[in-house]
Amino acid sequence: MKSIVKSLFVLAIIAVVSSCGQKEGVFFENLKDGQEVGTSVLVKMGVSGMEIEPAGEVTKGKGHHHIIIDDNWVKTGEVVPADKTHIHFGKGQTETTLELTPGEHTLTLQFANGLHQSYGEAWSKTITVNVK
């Protein structure tokens, strides 16, 4: 009887641990929605369910990050613009420092393929930061 109870306990622990895993998508590793930050903001970018690779090739299940400041995610298949508010990390970078003006800003993390074509809303994450 003890071994059955022990086995059920172990299975319950395994179920709880596996349900705590990161769901597929992109995420900010070090920032939370509504967080107060300084004007110089370290951003660590993560992804689960795809691999990071530099821009250039289109490989299924792979891509790279973009940060969009004060704008929305990019529709699936559309190319992420390249300007001062749409920052590309085509070398496969997963960390950067942004310089932001005081006030409230949205940061959208957008994953895209090797040609910078967006994987859409499902592969984006938007948070708001309050810059002091």
From TrEMBL:
It holds the Pfam family DUF4399. InterPro entries: DUF4399. Residues 43-132 form the DUF4399 domain. This is DUF4399 domain-containing protein. It comes from Roseivirga pacifica.
